[in-house]
Amino acid sequence: MENKKELILIRINGVDRPGLTASITEILSQYEVDIMDIGQADIHSTLSLGILFKCKESDSGNIMKDLLFQASNLGINIRFYPISYEEYDEWVSMQGKNRYILTLLGRKLSAKQIAGATRLLAEQHLNIDGIRRLTGRIPLDEKKANVRACIEFSVRGTPKDMEELQRDLMHLSSSLSMDFSFQQDNMYRRMRRLICFDMDSTLIETEVIDELAMRAGVGDQVKAITERAMRGEIDFRESFTERVALLKGLDERVMRDIAEHLPITEGVERLMFVLKRYGYKIAILSGGFTYFGNYLKDKFGIDYVYANQLEIKDGKLTGRYVGDIVDGKRKAELLQLIAQVEKVDIAQTIAVGDGANDLPMLSVAGLGIAFHAKPKVVANAKQSINTIGLDGVLYFLGFKDSYLEEQGKL
Asked: Are 150 and 195 in contact (CB under 8 A)?
């Protein structure tokens, strides 16, 4: 008569050390044991190891005795839990449910922030089945520069109201000074391949047209036109034409000087290094000017630049532009075009921007991120970064600081 099989879950806790997992599994290997599931976490050298295995009912007593003896030798705690076949089948059925990744990001993360986010998940009937820290060890000295904290939650289930969850997370992030990303955990999330950036106030901490206007002595006039456009009194195309006209007669050498002194946004160098290292295609899609986009292209090895080209004759700006204006609609079209050229599924694309004219490409991309953006943009984007530099994008892509330590690019 065939020996009945039994399911047993063991949970092990204690001080971690090399060879601990091996010593436990070596005991199991002495019996006809099938490993049904296994998971391990290590927090400040404290091990938490879980193993679900199937064994002969006649062997279970000896297995538990041997494991208890080994646990005593190792100075660890071990507990045993019999699992019924019905419980196991219910657990297996859960595996088919939707999976999501919730990423929390900030200069530091408090219990209040984590409690708020996890409460929202619980209210949506979502279960957390994994938590990992993506950033390195947080220094005790909070005054240290460029400190970042990021935690990633692996979540299972189907939200009862996705729009409500997104809205509540957005409100929570605003009220508690943190950033978040809530993405479906599918193949595309793990295989992003193309990332498109706005330039002004995203890759650089300025609006180049304002810099040019100040050098041309028309700063106040350009600013007034910009404000009219932001109030919706004139569209981007009209405001762009009016502002460029005011730059007539400005010497081309001024552009070179501005380009060489562009204030690069915090985290850009680190972000670009990692993206290039891991094979991403990178594009600038900007309502600014190609002159400055090409400067950044050469500096960081960016693959594509699409922006507006100022007309220059005899070394001076004519107050006109060449070709079509790159506005919000055009940015979205260009993102899709580059994806086609690179043979990248649209779900594998990322767009990052700060202005209203970035919303079309943020909504088209597989992952749209509002960066230090205007309130209207944040309200309409599914992900946003407001608390740290542009390298925060890396955590939304699932990168850990440990990956970057290997390259010396922390």
From this structure: no
What is residue 137's three-state secondary structure?
A: coil
What's the length of the chain? 410
- Within 8 A by CB and 6+ apart from 352, the residues are 195, 196, 197, 198, 202, 369, 371, 390, 393
pLDDT score recorded for residue 1: 45
Among 270, 267, 207, 271, smallest CA distance to 388 is for 267
| pLDDT for residue 402 | 72
Measure the CA–CA gap between 404 and 410, rounded to whole angstroms.
6
d(CA 247, CA 288): 14
Tell me which amino acid residue 374 is.
Answer: K
- Tell me the average pLDDT across 157-166: 92
Catalytic amino acids?
198, 200
Q: Which of 312, 300, 328 is nearest to 240 (CA)?
A: 328
Residues 6+ apart with CB under 8 A from 258: 208, 211, 212, 215, 292
- Number of helices (H) and strands (E), helices first, in the chain? 16, 15
**Residue 368 has which token pair?**
């749209």
**Greatest pairwise CA separation for the chain in angstroms:** 97
Count of CB atoms situated within 10 Å of the CB of 333: 16
The domains located in the chain, with CATH, are: 5-93 (3.30.70.260), 97-185 (3.30.70.260), 194-206+263-405 (3.40.50.1000)
pLDDT, tens digit (0-9, with 9 covering 90-100), for 212-240 = 999 999 999 998 887 777 666 888 888 89
Q: What are the DSSP calls for 264-308, one per residue?
A: BPTTHHHHHHHHHHTT-EEEEEEEEEHHHHHHHHHHHT-SEEEEE
Q: Which candidate, 21, 27, 36, 171, places its Cα nearest to that of 92?
A: 36
Query: ∠300-306-311 over CA atoms, to 5°?
Result: 110
